[in-house]
Design a protein that fits this description.
With about 350 residues, this protein is of the alpha+beta class. It has two domains: about 10-165, 60s Ribosomal Protein L30, Chain: A; about 170-335, Alpha-Beta Complex (Phosphoribosyl-aminoimidazole Synthetase, Chain A, domain 2). Helices cover about 35% and strands about 25% of the residues. The chain is built from twelve helices and twelve strands. The protein has helices at about 10-25, 65-75, 80-95, 115-130, 170, 190-200, 215-220, 230-240, 250-255, 275-285, 290-295, 310-320, and strands at about 55-65, 100-110, 135-140, 150-160, 180-185, 210, 215, 245, 265-270, 300-305, 325-330, 335. A six-stranded mixed beta sheet has the order 8-10-5-11-9-12. A four-stranded mixed beta sheet has the order 1-4-2-3, covered by helices on one side. Helix 1 (about 10-25) runs parallel beside helix 4 (about 115-130) and helix 3 packs parallel to helix 4. The protein is globular. It catalyses: 2-formamido-N(1)-(5-O-phospho-beta-D-ribosyl)acetamidine + ATP = 5-amino-1-(5-phospho-beta-D-ribosyl)imidazole + ADP + phosphate + H(+). It holds the Pfam family AIRS. Belongs to the AIR synthase family.
Length: about 350
């Protein structure tokens, strides 16, 4: 009996349908630098518009971890695309880079055109928030590797910065610098293996019915990672920011030391941190230690800037949501939260 690719588990018609559904979303992200269109073998982007003396490209790649499992369970897929963009562009922002373009990769067990289009719609929305063009992507249907309803999502961002304006904390951070924090929108995209263990295995919650402060747990957990690009870039033009850190896996204790020169540490005032109810609830439900909480979650802080004391007032005037949470002190690279 003759076989077909479709009988082997790959439905090309669903792929063609997905492309038709996502064209509009992708084109809405295009910026003047985009030279290519959908359907090519690669994406083309011109740097002529940037007009920098010594342009340096900055790249970053990431995924959204097991947050995709929640999206799959709830059959809500758009926000996960925003998460993917955020995880990449916030990272390259830490070097002072302005995002230029983005590419996404989705691998799935069975390609459902509408579901995949929902993910890409979210990716496009994230790109618009970051000012990046979505110039390429891939959706791979992989029966036998993934279960039918499963998928994974990853992205790749490229930005640009003038060589003289690259931000490298290890060169500039000094004792006495202040740490200013921008709040997270929630859990963002890290710690979800622990979150799932708590809410499903321990508490057995119905996420659509369980509420915190009048908002469903489903909405709270799927709240997309905040993208800090548009608010932070103007600050970099106005102030000599010594370092920036995107607070992701490992929380404050693991991400702040990444920008510290040798011989310096960080002292954090716990009372200054933004208070998001989801974190206290997770600690209560999971009976988690303070160390486990700070070592796993962002604890309300999504992004940090290291600045001189004399620049604090100006930065806070430009970033109304920011607050001082700590300072740089002498030490051996530790983060002390007290």
């Amino acid at each position: 009996m003759a076989l077909s690719y479709k009988e082997a588990g790959v439905d090309k018609e669903q792929g063609y349908k997905e492309v038709g559904l996502i064209k509009k979303f992708i084109k809405e992200t295009y910026t003047p630098g985009v030279l290519s269109d959908l359907g090519g073998f690669s994406g083309l982007f011109s740097l002529e518009e940037e007009k920098l003396s010594h342009p340096v490209l900055v790249s970053g790649t990431d995924g959204v971890g097991t947050k995709v499992v929640l999206a799959q369970k709830l059959d809500r897929h758009k926000t996960i695309g925003i998460d993917c963009v955020a995880m990449c562009v916030n990272d390259i922002l830490c070097q002072g880079a302005k995002p230029l373009f983005f590419l996404d990769y989705i691998a799935c067990g069975k390609l459902h055109a509408e579901k995949m289009a929902g993910i890409v719609e979210g990716v496009a929305e994230g790109c618009k928030r970051a000012g990046a063009a979505l110039i390429g992507g891939e959706t791979a249907e992989m029966p036998g590797v993934y279960r039918e309803e499963d998928y994974d999502l990853a992205g790749f961002a490229v930005g640009i910065v003038d060589r003289e304006k690259i931000i490298d904390g290890k060169q500039k951070v000094k004792e006495g610098d202040l740490i200013l924090a921008l709040p997270s929108s929630g859990i963002h995209s890290n710690g979800f293996s622990l979150v799932r263990k708590i809410i499903f295995d321990k508490m057995h919650f119905d996420l659509e019915k369980e509420q915190i402060s009048g908002k469903s747990l489903a909405d709270i957990l799927l709240e997309p990672t905040r993208i800090y690009v548009r608010e932070v870039l103007p600050v970099l033009s106005a102030v000599d920011v010594h370092a920036m850190a995107h607070i992701t896996g490992g929380g404050l204790p693991e991400n702040l030391p990444r920008v510290l020169p040798e011989g310096l540490s960080v002292l954090i005032d716990e009372s200054a941190l933004p208070r998001l109810p989801i974190f206290s609830k997770l600690q209560e439900w999971g009976e988690l230690s303070r160390e486990e909480m700070f070592g796993t979650f962002n604890m309300g802080v999504g992004f940090t800037l290291f600045v001189r004391k004399e620049d604090e007032k100006k930065v806070l005037s430009m970033l109304p949501e920011a607050r001082r949470i700590g300072e740089v002190v002498r030490g051996k690279g530790e983060v002390t939260i007290q």
